[in-house]
Amino acid sequence: MPSFLDEIETCVPALRRYARALTRDADRADDLVQDCLERAIRKNALFRPRGPLRAWLFTILLNLHRNQARAERRQGQTTPLDGLPSEPSVPASQHGHIALAEMARAIDALPGEQREALLLVVLEDMPYADAASILGVPQGTLMSRLGRARAALRTMTGGDPQAPRLRTVK
What we know:
Layout: H1 4-23, H2 26-42, H3 53-75, H4 95-109, H5 112-123, H6 128-135, H7 139-156
């Protein structure tokens, strides 16, 4: 049977992927995962195996992200001058890069609760029940958030919001 730390170690890649998708910044994502792992190890006595360790870790990570987002809204954001481009930017020449950037902007524009649900189900390929547990909502609420997120993405990226969509059942 794997130890607590071994189980945590197997979850790190998925935690990093989800944190990167939430923050859209590799350094902030790594800090978020580090804070999550530190808290999990420090609070391992509180873990009660009602469900998988992975879901508990994702819950910690999501709560830390939400706390940081609230703190940033209160403080406001600053942009370092050296981070600004000195030359006007040139749009990407490949259509695929443009479409990908457009989708990333659309995902960023989603309300937080919809973005979190979409990333857990689509990026992490989590079953609806696990994602709902991590977000602390009923499964029906999760499915509603996913539906609204998908419809908003179709609208923001120029798709037909009434078009039939592929159904994913988890």
